[in-house]
Each structure stands twice: as structure tokens, then as C-alpha cells.
Amino acid sequence: MKERITVKIGSQILTRKDGTLDVTRMSALVDQIAELHKSGVEVILVSSGAVASGKSEIKVKSKLDTISARQLYSSIGQVKLINRYSDLFHQQNITCGQILATKEDFSTRRHYLNQRNCMSVMLENKVIPIVNENDAISVTGLMFTDNDEMSGLVATMMGCEKLIILSNIDGIYNGNPSDPKSEIFKKIDITKDNIEDCIQSSKSSTGRGGMTTKYNIARKAAEEGIEVIIANGRRDNILVDLIKGKDVISTHFIPSTKKTTSIKKWIAHSEGFTKGEIYVNQNAKEVLLGDKAVSLLPVGVTQIIGNFETDDVVRIMDEKGKLIGIGKTAYSSEKAKEVIGKNNKKAIIHYDYLYIEK
Ligand SMILES: Nc1ncnc2c1ncn2[C@@H]1O[C@H](COP(=O)(O)OP(=O)(O)O)[C@@H](O)[C@H]1O
Ligand SMILES: N[C@@H](CCC(=O)OP(=O)(O)O)C(=O)O
């Protein structure tokens, strides 16, 4: 089978200090993606840079609020960005296509599958999908934390073996990156290492979520069996070197070897889209957290919160209100309330649609 990877490029790499597109860097990255593509690697590109490149294009007369500014700049900048990509890939005899997604597009299974189908048909036809958040319409609560979050969702959705997050830094440092004593973590084993405290709240001038989202998303993707690499997009030939397995400076997250179905992967990433909560008793909690794959039965349920429909994703909470899992419910909230605590009723969440946070 062909190797399939998602590459995420941050705003900082694509824009110069004055806010204009750094075409030299873009071109170098496109050349590397083209080389990988021609050698048979399927690449999905998640690219930021719309807002940053739109800013340098227009002078606004009156001061804009944050949302309007993001909408205006991204709508202008995305055109510039994708046109430039299209030209650069065209010079390599490669066709690329654009997908602009919102967080909502990952929240319903139908939208999720539509997106997956679109990217699959592009890859089958040797077209490189270039994905960005649809900044013009996704505002405030509907927004992704940043494109790092979206790149994790895309890599999972498309069953990628690797997710390479390119930023303006060589990887995750064990202290302040500007402190010369700080060193890069070369490998992170998510089952043992917790390096959250090493991450500073600082981020690049144009970046949105900083290293924190990169770290959180990298852990989640690695748990689902994807090898995640955080590396510096400004280093020459970085992508090709990483894929060839060269020892280049970067942080690798060791992927879990556990097998997960694609619906479970979708559920695992759906915490932000849940429509309600199902509270379970201590006994049900112990069974769900045990080694066996079990369904959640009405007999172990103590309370239903929120209004949801059949097939919505809901949170599963223990008696103390701690989140223990997420699942796709087989009942609406109304029907679920009727069967609380009852025996011999069909499962509220079948184990094929259940993700337990362990
Ligand atoms: N421990 C750390 N190691 C590396 N970078 C860190 C760390 N803590 C915070 N950062 C910051 O994270 C930034 C990268 O995130 P971000 O600005 O969102 O980049 P991008 O625009 O590429 O997504 C780095 O430039 C750095 O300032
Ligand atoms: N969708 C936005 C991306 C914002 C974002 O996530 O930026 P970054 O943290 O640099 O990847 C844009 O294209 O400007």
C-alpha cells in the first residue's frame, strides 16, 4: 500500500515579516511535496497563511473588530494563497485542489464522510488536496483552535501513517526555546512522557494555538497509530529528509500499535461537538474502563442531560461528573430517559461506537 501523509504548514513559514507571502519558501516546500508525490507518497496538505497574506493586500479605512478583520483578510488572502500553490504545483505538472472546512464539517458523520470521499477521490486521481479552515464563515465558537487541530482530524480521517507539522521551530524544547540550555525532545512516548509543563504560552506573531495545540493534537493522533513529527519548515529539504528517515532535528511522537476502527477515531475527535451527557453508576464505570470491549446498557445509567437525537455524539460521565468517554447514542435523550436504570433494554451506546478515555 502507498504511504499516505498529512503535512501541515503554519502561517509563520509562509509569510515574511512584512506580511507578504514568502514565495521562495512556498516554492521550496512545493518542490519537496512534488518529489514525494512523484515517488508515490500520497500527500494531503493543510496550509495556513490566508489571514497573514490577506493583511498585506488591503488598507482598511476604519478600525475593524477581530472577527470582521479575520473574515476580510482570509477571504482576500486565501485566493492569493491557493493561486500561488496552483501555479507552483502546475510548474511540477501536478494538479492541486482546494478544500475549505469548518469545525461543523467534522461534527456530523455525513459531512465527515463527504469530506473523506472528496479527499479520497482527489488522491485517487493524483490531485493534491490543499485544506484550510474556512475562516470567512467559521467564527468564535465554530472555529478550530487552529489548523494544527484540523490537521490531526484530517490525518485521522484519511488514515494517514504520518502527520508532519511544520513550524518556525525545530521541535519541542524541554524549556524556553530562546534559552540556549534548552534541548529538543527527539522522541516522545505518549504512554510514559508528559511534557506539558515544558511548553510556554508564547507563539509566533501570526500563529494561533502555539505549541500547546501541536502537543495535544500530536498526542491524540499518536494514540490512534499515527506517527507525528514536529519540525522546522524553514530547514532545507526537511520533508524529503524526514520521509527518507534521515536523522534531522525534530520531535517524533511514537505511534501506538493499538488498532482502532475509523468510526472510533471519529468519535474520539468529537468531544467538542457533543450534544449531551449520560451519567453512569460506579459499576458501569468499572466495566467500561475494564479490558473487555463492552456496550453501555441502560441499567448502568443514572441521568441524562441535554437534548440529543439518535446517532448524536454524547459524553459519558461518572458519578462525580468526570468525563470517561464519548459515544454515538442509539437513543434520543427523550427515549433514553424512559429506560434509565432498566434491565433487558438495547444498549444506549454499542461498543463499536464507544470511545473510552483511558
Ligand atoms: N517548549 C517549546 N518548544 C518549542 N516551541 C515552543 C515551546 N513552547 C512554546 N513554543 C512556541 O510555539 C511556537 C510555534 O507555534 P505557532 O506560533 O502556533 O506556530 P505555527 O504558526 O507554525 O503554527 C514557537 O515559535 C515557540 O515560540
Ligand atoms: N486558517 C488560518 C490559519 C490560522 C492558524 O491556525 O495559523 P497557524 O497557527 O499558523 O497554523 C489562515 O489561513 O490564516
TrEMBL record:
Pathway: Amino-acid biosynthesis; L-proline biosynthesis; L-glutamate 5-semialdehyde from L-glutamate: step 1/2
Annotated ranges, domain PUA: 276-349
GO biological process: L-proline biosynthetic process
One term under GO cellular component: cytosol
NCBIfam families xrefs: proB (TIGR01027)
Function, in words: Catalyzes the transfer of a phosphate group to glutamate to form L-glutamate 5-phosphate.
Protein name: Glutamate 5-kinase
Native source species: Dysgonomonas mossii DSM 22836
